[in-house]
Structure formats: structure tokens, C-alpha cells
Write a structure and sequence with these properties.
Helix content is 39%, strand content 15%. It is α/β, with parallel strands linked by helices. The strands form 2 sheets. It has an 8-stranded parallel sheet with strand order 3-4-5-6-7-8-9-10. The protein is globular and about 55 Å long. The termini are far apart.
Length: 278
């Protein structure tokens, strides 16, 4: 079985570059598919409080033969719980559902720029890390302005920034900002959320060249440009297929061709405008 390469955070800890995401997966289904993902070789699972499946992920971790210390687990704080004290309580709730003692990665799910609560929230994250309850801390869906403000206000740089990123939304500017601060970029919706990306003729041509699927080629592109990437599927065959991207090696021409597909096309909300708390 191929093992995912790992990338090193600026705090010295590491993360498997290819992970498995469970957005829009019901709790009982999450237990099953996370188990399948672990069996397929994934050692990095990404969930969030708002997904409503932390308990299912926790059951999968408990019931699988893979040792807990061998699996990197991420969850995220939901918008309605931002603020110092509420963050600490929300973390306790997430950990109870996951049924684990220490979390590998905690992320602020959205910046919510208008609310201006993300700095106090981040201070709670720093406290949780000091207590040893979470190993590494990062952010998700932060516009450049809010990311810079967070760092300047607290002096604590996130180790990772999870953003929507695919060949149709390459996020070159934000990746440059992350790199400037030695922050790893993680891609959510890496395959374009079923909105036509995988039917792209350029991807089909490159996939044929490598005897791979378009999805594998897209994931191989993410890996080649240094993203941490978390494809989601509940189909057993696709879970295995996506992991097979580790065996696809693109050349520089392939990578450039895929990067050239950028349309600035989002499938999810604009982080500068998203303030939903429901």
C-alpha cells in the first residue's frame, strides 16, 4: 500500500498530504466511510463541528485496527461559537464527540470579517494548544486582510490555511500569502464539487496519458504544487480511486496545463462575505 507523503508545519509537526474529508456525510455514514478510508490507506481525516458527524468519525477511529496515534484528525470551530469562552466550550463538545484525548488540528472554520470575533477566538486556540489539548492550530476560509490582521494582533501564525482550491480556482495570490508566512495551504472541494471540472478536456487528455482518471490527475496536481488535499467521497470505489492519485506522477508540462485552467470559479461562499451562523 502506498503511503501518503507528509508535509511539515512551521511548528515542527507533520501532516499526511492526502487526507479524507467528510463534508455533507451523515453521522452513521461517516462511521462506515471513514473506516473504509482508513482501510484504503488514508491516515488523515478532516471533519468539522457543523458537519454533524464528529461522533461517527470518532466511532470509526475507535473501531478500526489503525492505531489512534497513526491518524491525523482535524475538526473545525463553527461560526456561532466564535469568541474566547464559547470556543473553549465548543472544543470540549467536539472532543467528547470524537472520543479522543488530543486533537491534531483545530481550525477556525470561517473568518466572518464583519463579526470581528476571530482574534479572540484565535487566542482561545492558542490557549488550547498551550494546554496540550490540540497539537497544531490553523484557520480556514480567511481572506488575506483578516489573515494578516490575525497574525499582527496575536503574533501567532497559523500552521495551515484551508481554502476552496481546485484547477478552476487556483488561489495563486492566497497561496503566495500563505507561503510568505510559512503556512501550508489545504484545499477543500479539490475536485470542484461535481460542477463539471472532471469533464474538462485538458484533464481527460492528461488522464489518458497517465492511464489515470481525471480525479486522480487533479489530486496529483494538488500534491505536485504542495497543497494538502482532502477529497471526499462516500463511494467505496472512489475512496480507493482517490487514494490511487499517490501513484500518479505529473510532469512540469502537465502541472502547468492544469494550473492554466484557472477561472476564478468558486463552488462555495466568498469568505469575505460569509457570516452565516446557523
Amino acid at each position: 500500500m502506498t503511503t501518503s507523503p507528509t508535509l511539515t508545519f512551521h511548528d515542527g509537526h507533520t501532516i499526511p498530504q492526502l487526507g479524507y474529508g467528510v463534508w455533507q456525510v451523515e453521522d452513521d455514514v461517516a462511521e462506515k466511510v471513514v473506516g473504509l478510508a482508513l482501510d484504503a490507506g488514508y491516515r488523515h481525516i478532516d471533519t468539522a463541528a457543523v458537519y454533524g458527524n464528529e461522533a461517527g468519525v470518532g466511532r470509526a477511529l475507535k473501531n478500526n485496527d489503525v492505531a489512534r496515534e497513526d491518524v491525523f484528525v482535524t475538526t473545525k470551530l463553527w461560526n456561532s461559537e466564535q469568541g474566547y469562552d464559547s470556543t473553549l466550550k465548543a472544543f470540549d463538545a467536539s472532543m467528547a464527540k470524537l472520543g479522543i484525548d488530543t486533537l491534531d488540528m483545530y481550525l477556525i472554520h470561517w473568518a466572518m470579517p464583519r463579526e470581528k470575533t476571530y482574534v479572540d477566538t484565535w487566542k482561545a486556540f492558542v490557549e488550547l494548544q498551550k494546554q496540550g489539548r490540540v497539537t497544531s492550530i490553523g484557520v480556514s476560509n480567511f481572506p488575506e486582510e483578516q489573515l494578516e490582521h490575525l497574525i499582527s494582533e496575536t503574533g501567532v501564525v497559523p500552521v495551515m490555511h484551508q481554502i476552496e482550491l481546485s484547477p478552476y480556482l487556483t488561489q495563486e495570490r492566497l497561496r503566495e500569502v500563505d507561503a510568505k508566512h510559512d503556512i501550508l495551504t489545504q484545499a477543500w472541494s479539490p475536485l470542484g464539487s461535481g460542477k463539471g471540472l472532471l469533464d474538462d478536456a485538458t484533464l481527460a487528455k492528461i488522464a489518458q496519458k497517465h492511464g489515470a482518471t481525471p480525479a486522480q490527475v487533479v489530486l496529483a496536481w494538488h500534491l505536485a504544487i504542495g497543497n494538502v488535499v482532502i477529497p471526499k467521497s462516500v463511494t467505496p470505489e472512489r475512496i480507493v480511486e482517490n487514494y490511487g492519485a499517490l501513484d500518479v506522477t505529473l510532469d512540469d508540462e502537465d502541472v502547468a496545463a492544469i494550473s492554466g485552467l484557472d477561472r476564478g470559479e468558486r463552488t462555495g461562499p466568498d469568505p469575505a462575505e460569509f457570516h452565516h451562523k446557523g
